[in-house]
Amino acid sequence: MKQKYFMIQNSILESIGNTPLVRLRKVTENVKATVAAKVEYLNPGQSVKDRIAIKMIDDAEEKGLIKPGGTIIEGTSGNTGMGLALVAAVRGYKCIFTTTDKQSKEKIDLLRALGAKVEVCPTDVDPEDPQSYYSVAKRLSEEIPNSYYPNQYENLSNTQAHYETTGPEIWEQTEGKITHYACGMGTGGTITGVAKFLKEKNPDIKVIGLDSFGSVYKHYFETGEFNKDVIHPYKTEGIGEDIIPGNIDFDYIDDVVQVSDKQAFLMTRNLATQEGLFVGGSCGAAVFGALEYAKKENLKSTDLMVIILPDSGTRYISKIYNDDWMRENNYIE
Ligand code: PMP
User: Fold this and answer.
1) For all residues of the chain together, what is the average pLDDT?
2) 212: enclosing H helix or E strand
3) Ligand 1 atom nearest 186 alpha carbon
4) What share of the chain is helix, strand, coil (3-state, %, to 5)?
5) How far is residue 116 from each of residues 32, 92, 158, 237, 326, measured CA to CA in Å?
6) Catalytic residue among 49, 55, 107, 319
7) Which of ligand 1's atoms lies nearest the C-alpha of 188?
8) Cα 191 to ligand 1 centre (Å)
9) Which of the listed residues 117, 148, 179 is the one where a domain comes to its end?
10) From the CB of 167, is ligand 1 less than 6 Å away?
């Protein structure tokens, strides 16, 4: 693996990837397996999504889909926007992002701090609704000349980024000993790209997808049916969907575990206070769900589970790390 900090880099974009894999020691009580977390907040944009941001723009430049001085337009829960904004800053593009009113204020402020324009759209509308953040991003990309809409949901450069970087890193860091891979599912790029790489190396590796209650994924995984009735609002940001994106491929996924907001957020706080991992809510969801699976399936001491931690706690200071907000939402007494 490249020793990324021992040379002068041409830009901050070269420090994307090669994140550490860190053993979890305390939150893993009653789990026999070794559990290690891939700490993605150590990317320069503090999330796993830097990896896809640079890949989607590299691929678009190569295909001539974006020209110098052009505008990148994307629907994002915040992290992909942050990665794209870094790429845009270094390469001289403008950015317009659409997001939903459920995302934390910190994420929106961060995007604006990096020079992006941000349109906040309502969360509780159908994806096809003209007000939805998907529709607004698409419309803007049609209206604004010399713009490029990466569309992380359908753009397979997303999955490919993880197939080329995250997957090989995990394989090398575990010296091929990984037995279980657990990952939250948003666009599906992280779970699918890594799973594809790992299963090509060793088809026995089990892949566990973590989902939120209120998302369509678990029901779809189990029945093959898209059921709108299971959709309801929830607070965990970045995982679970109300669509089936082109980047998720359930053929690579062996089990799906749903996690509640309360379970996710209490685990998020435990990761900070017990492991020194200051992470976001989808990390708590991933760890809680993965450990439930490890207990249910009685993983052995020889098993090695890797869990992806997608982003940083800095995005959630006003929510998960704020006692008033946690109390108002009945997550703590
Ligand atoms: N957690 C967070 C905080 C995210 O922003 C995302 C991206 N939506 C994910 C998890 C899920 O990653 P992916 O889109 O690759 O499924």
Assistant:
1) 96
2) strand 206-212
3) 16
4) 40, 15, 40
5) 46, 12, 21, 20, 30
6) 49
7) 16
8) 10
9) 148
10) no
* C-alpha 134 – ligand 1 centre gap (Å): 16
* Residue at a domain's end among 148, 182, 198: 148
Residue 83 near ligand 1, beta carbon < 6 Å:
no
Q: pLDDT tens digits for 194-229?
A: 999 999 999 999 999 999 999 999 999 999 999 999
pLDDT digits (tens, 9 = 90+) for 140-153: 999 999 999 999 99
Indicate the residue type of 35: V
pLDDT over 80 at 5, yes or no: no
- Which residue has 């906040």 as its token pair? 120
Rounded percentage of the chain residues whose pLDDT exceeds 90:
94
Instruction: Name beta bridge partners: 120.
Output: 99
Tell me the residue range of the domain where 112 lies: 49-148
User: What is the pLDDT at residue 1?
Assistant: 54
**From the alpha carbon of 282, which atom of ligand 1 is closest?**
1
For ligand 1, atom 3, the nearest C-alpha belongs to: 238
Q: Is 240 in the pocket of ligand 1 (CB under 6 A)?
A: no
Please check whether residues 130 and 199 belong to one and the same domain. no
Whether residue 263 has its Cβ less than 6 Å from ligand 1: no
Q: What is the pTM of this model?
A: 0.96
Give the dihedral sign, CA 11/66/123/254: negative
Residue 7 forms part of a structural domain: no
Answer whether 77's CB lies under 8 Å from 99's CB: yes
Is 49 labeled as catalytic in the residue annotation?
yes
